[in-house]
Design brief:
mainly alpha; 6 helices; globular
């Protein structure tokens, strides 16, 4: 199997997904997954920095990479500070299926909007930048409820909190894929 080069749309999507998902896995070495009050501003900043660093390595210009990392750090810090929380590292406390879906969609959309808005500051082209806010919002609004439901089901089946962590991993994988399909526009 031949690896898709980084400058093709598919290749960048694959690398972006691996960077995003790998960044989440790496962040687990530095921060602990928990419920909303357990994950604070420092943990969100550390996790956001790790993921943005790996994503930033895929961007063409070094100054864009630095701006991407700083704006992502700002976004994660901002959404955590205003009470939305570190969406990709928190597990909902509710075990009610419809509430998990609804709260996941709402918190995912709010978190995705905050992160996308902050990352918008780093993107050079105004037209692409506005699209990125929408892509981030929609990606998180889809991925958080899916990952949350997967986590709840696995937790119930296994009686292990690891099921919830797998659900969060599913969230990050989906976010990586959905944002990765649009990441090639960031590099033009």
């Amino acid at each position: 199997m031949r690896f898709a080069p980084r400058n093709t749309r598919f290749g960048l999507t694959l690398l972006w997904t691996l960077a995003t998902f790998g960044g989440f896995l790496l962040s687990l070495l530095l921060i602990e997954v928990g419920e909303k009050p357990d994950i604070g501003l420092v943990e969100a900043a550390i996790g956001g920095f790790v993921i943005a660093l790996l994503q930033g390595c895929l961007l063409k210009q070094p100054i864009f990479c630095i701006r991407w990392i700083l704006s992502s750090l700002l976004g994660w810090s901002m959404i955590t500070a205003i009470g939305i929380g570190a969406v990709g590292w928190i597990v909902p406390s509710t075990q009610i299926f419809p509430l998990r879906i609804l709260s996941g969609a709402v918190y995912g959309a709010l978190g995705g909007f905050g992160i996308g808005l902050a990352q918008w500051l780093a993107i050079p082209q105004a037209v692409v930048a506005w699209r990125w806010i929408f892509v981030s919002t929609a990606s998180w609004a889809i991925a958080v409820p899916v990952g949350s439901v997967v986590g709840m089901i696995l937790h119930r089946l296994t009686q292990l909190f690891l099921g919830e962590v797998i659900g969060l991993a599913m969230t990050w994988l989906l976010v990586g894929i959905l944002t990765g399909m649009n990441a090639h526009k960031l590099r033009s």
